[in-house]
Design brief:
Elements (H helix, E strand, L loop, with lengths): L2 E5 L6 H7 L4 H5 L5 H7 L10 E5 L23 E6 L1 E2 L2 E2 L4 E6 L2 E6 L5 E6 L5 E6 L5 E5 L9 H10 L13 H14 L11 H11 L2
Antiparallel strand pairs: 1-2, 3-8, 4-5, 6-7, 6-9, 9-10
Helix pairs in contact: 4-6
Length: 212
């Protein structure tokens, strides 16, 4: 069966790739031809530009039906979720009104008791802006731009989202990145483990706290 070899660009994820090519995300991600990519990246929403995703070409399906009977076909939807948690210090920003601009489409909502914004979005959504109604604070999210946590750029992006790193997301080592890692380790591991170097324990902790 023929396949398309899709080269990942910045901002792509399995959901957006599958959506653009008329497939379901699970069909693409679970395809045996993508097993090595799945094992390497772990997270379908954190791919690296240059990764190759093998997408099986769509098949036309036919149904044999009686012409004397009324038939109804249901088209399956493939919505995705935007899930973001807002904190102020160590406390969640609970029950705060906000406006959400998703690729230019506005909506409103209220954070839940744990400070989460949860919204249904299109799989190929590119940008979300959350504005808190009371304070006017704006937070911009470039969806699909988070690199895998195994990459330096992925560590930078997650630490930046946690407010610990303010340098460029360029994949390069720097004193700013080292200090951000050290501060994360102090807060979430222990002072004795605050080496400023990424190890498996730090990476796993960062993945659990940040998500993805």
């Amino acid at each position: 069966m023929p396949y398309i070899d899709y080269v990942v660009k910045q901002g792509d994820c399995i959901s957006s790739i599958a959506y653009e090519l008329g497939m379901f995300p699970g069909t693409v991600w679970d395809d045996p031809k993508n097993s090595s990519l799945k094992e390497k990246r772990k997270n379908p929403n954190a791919l690296l530009p240059g990764d190759v995703v093998h997408v099986r070409q769509k098949e036309n399906k036919q149904a044999t039906l009686s012409s004397e009977t009324r038939h109804r076909f249901k088209r399956k939807g493939v919505p995705e979720k935007l899930i973001v948690r807002f904190m102020k210090g160590d406390k969640p920003r609970a029950n705060e009104r906000y406006q959400l601009d998703m690729d230019g489409a506005p909506s409103e909502g209220t954070t839940d008791n744990d400070g989460y914004v949860r919204a249904t979005i299109n799989p190929n959504a590119k940008q979300a802006i959350v504005t808190f109604s009371k304070t006017g604070e704006k937070f911009l999210f470039n969806l699909g731009h988070l690199d895998p946590i195994t990459e330096n750029s992925g560590v930078q992006g997650r630490l930046a989202n946690l407010g610990l790193y303010s340098g460029p997301i360029d994949g390069e080592s720097s004193e700013d990145l080292t200090e951000a890692i050290r501060e994360f380790q102090r807060k979430n591991l222990s002072e004795s483990e605050a080496t400023g170097q990424m190890d498996d324990k730090t990476r796993d902790k960062l993945k659990r706290i940040h998500g993805g």
